[in-house]
Amino acid sequence: METNNSGLISSITSEHSPLKAWSKGTKLRIAYIEEPPFYWTGENHVVKGADIELAEVVLRAIGVSSIEYQLTTFEELLPGVQAGRWDMNVPIFVTAERAKNVAFSVPVWSLGDGFVVQQGNPKELTSYEAVVKSGDALLGVIPGQVQLDAAKLAGVSDSQIVMFNNQPEAVAALLAGKIDAFAATAIGNRGIATANPKLQAIPHKTSKDGKALSGAFSFSKSNHGLLQAVNAQLREYLGSSDHRERMAKYGITETEIDSVVA
Q1: How far is Cα 34 from Cα 42, in angstroms, rounded to an integer?
Q2: CATH-assigned architecture of domain 113-204
Q3: Exposed end of the chain (fewer CB within 10 Å): N or C?
Q4: C-alpha torsion 191→192→197→203, nearest 10
């Protein structure tokens, strides 16, 4: 990827740069999962997505010479980076529980939650509470993601929850009528619905108080030098015109960006 680094490296050029804690020219490994528009495997096994592009811009700016991508499952993201199987994870929602195990960067986006349902939304599933009221609606979720916690907090019973390893599996089950809704980010759901005319995206909020949740890159708590360097660059870059233009290609707008750069 060609990266425009103009104006992006001021935070790493001083004598006291966080890069002093590690070396320029470092090769770095990032873990990701299949979740468009944030990260996915494209044609010819090229890894793509909004957060992939953000990672490449930031890491190239701080002097990383080579980036390798490791496809994994959501459940393995945090244990994998903790164990040193890779150096950092793509952004996921920041929660207090997750922060006990890994170090998060500054937030890079703020997202609301939503469902993907069959076109026409036959069971009128507009929230987790609506799933509870339906009594027999089946909700697809991915283990470890915040949507599972949100569903249970709203009272969705275990008998109504169906677990899937990844987003493609859940979408296939929804198309086949095996579940009635799939819970994920509202912005990601719009992409799913666009790619599948038989499906419809229903936005709602993730958190109990109605506020969207923020997401960030995550690192081993022992990898403090890399975290510092990434944070310094993110503070310079997030909210810039270059950042906004790149994110807009994936449907990420000021709605998702402004609350984390204000």
Answers
A1: 10
A2: 3-Layer(aba) Sandwich (3.40)
A3: C
A4: -80
The pLDDT score that the predictor gives to residue 24 is: 63
Q: Are 99 and 82 spatial neighbours (Cβ–Cβ below 8 Å)? A: no
Rg (CA), the chain: 19
Phi, psi dihedrals of residue 154, rounded to the nearest 5°: -80, -10
User: What pLDDT was estimated at residue 4?
Assistant: 40
In angstroms, the CA 211 to CA 206 distance is 7
- Name the residue with tokens 């170090």: 103
What pLDDT score was predicted for residue 62? Answer: 94
Specify the pLDDT at position 262: 66
pLDDT profile of the chain (262 residues), mean per 10: 37 39 75 95 96 97 95 96 97 96 97 94 95 96 93 96 96 98 93 95 63 90 95 97 96 91 78
Q: What is the 3-state secondary structure (H, E, C) of 75-106?
A: HHHHHHHHCCCCCEEEEEECCHHHHCCCEECC
CA of 114: how far to CAs of 111, 126, 143, 225, in Å? 10, 8, 16, 36
Place of tokens 């002093």: 20
**What's the full length of the chain, in residues?**
262
